[in-house]
Amino acid sequence: MSDRSTTSPAVPQQDTERTFDRLVDEGTQRLGRSWSGLLATGFLGGLDVGVGVLALLLLEEATHSALLGGLGLSLGFIALTLARSELFTEDFLVPVAAVVAKSATLRSLARLWLLTTVTNLAGGWLITGLVMAGFPSLRAIAVESGVFYIGLGVTWKAFALALIGGMLITLMTHLQHSTDSDGVRLVPAVVVGFLLGAGKLNHAIVASLICFAALQVGAPFGYADWLGLFGFAVLGNMIGGLALVTLMRLLQIPHKVLAERTGNAYRNGGREDA
């Protein structure tokens, strides 16, 4: 009985360390992608989320239920998970872990964030334009949804919704890297997609795609209003993802992080390439 009680705490610790190893390995791979690879995965990420936005609008228009709309949005996150495409807000844990472990540089992280953001928005703008052209019946609900996000303004409510959105998407990323099973990875994708849609959380990319759909069919706001929403959402998403999840996860295993940093610094000859 005593032997079991003394050894069992090491099991979750070892699981956390294995998850960190997966994060570092994949983060290094992501940050090492070519320019064309980054452009393609980011653009496809915008298309994948656009599929979820289409499902969300279809279900909300047909049922007038935000809960069912949230289930529709989860389809986009299922597509992201299975297709291995890239979403800007997913990059608050995996590549950051690689940088913290000195397996990659801050410069490569900045390149990933910038290119993924731009290509997510480009892919999202394209697919929402196609959706609005192909589904005229969704125009009213798209405008209504876009007005909701713009109406959040620069308020504590908007910031709180952005913090929660960033926290949830980063938690989803962590949970997905805690397992080798694609089937298990779908569970957090469905749950987080549902919460983002049903709760109308202030997620920079999802809210942007909904606003793009509204803007393309005569919304009572402009691209300058969207840009203000986007900037504020990015700030909240980053703080929620980086401070509330990534930092706390890394603090769970400080010895592992330190060992990884020391080993990589030694292999790199002590160079700090930022």
Describe this structure as you would to a colleague.
It is a single chain. The chain has one domain: Glycerol uptake facilitator protein (Up-down Bundle). The chain is elongated. Helix content is 80%, strand content 0%. It is built from twelve helices and no strands. Mean pLDDT is 90; it is low at 1-7. The N and C termini lie far apart (50 Å). The chain has helices at 2-7, 10-31, 35-63, 66-83, 94-100, 106-134, 139-151, 156-176, 182-198, 204-215, 223-252, 254-267. The protein is mostly helical.
What layout of secondary structure does this protein have?
Layout: H1 2-7, H2 10-31, H3 35-63, H4 66-83, H5 94-100, H6 106-134, H7 139-151, H8 156-176, H9 182-198, H10 204-215, H11 223-252, H12 254-267
Helix pairs in contact: 2-5, 3-4, 3-6, 3-10, 4-9, 6-10, 7-10, 8-9, 8-11, 10-11
Brief sketch in words of this structure:
With 274 residues, the protein is mainly α.
The whole-number mean of residue pLDDT values reads 90
Here the CATH topology equals: Glycerol uptake facilitator protein
CATH superfamily: Glycerol uptake facilitator protein
Regions with little confidence, pLDDT below 50 for 5+ residues: 1-7
Order of helices and strands: HHHHHHHHHHHH
Category from helices, strands and their pairing:
mainly alpha
According to DSSP, the number of beta strands is 0
Indicate the overall shape.
elongated
- CATH class category name: Mainly Alpha
User: Strand portion, in percent?
Assistant: under 5%
Helix content: over 70%
Number of helices: 12
Question: Measured on Cα atoms, how large is the radius of gyration?
Answer: 20 Å
Q: Under the CATH scheme, which architecture would be assigned?
A: Up-down Bundle
Tell me the distance between the termini. 50 Å
Total domains: 1
Q: What does the main sheet amount to?
A: none
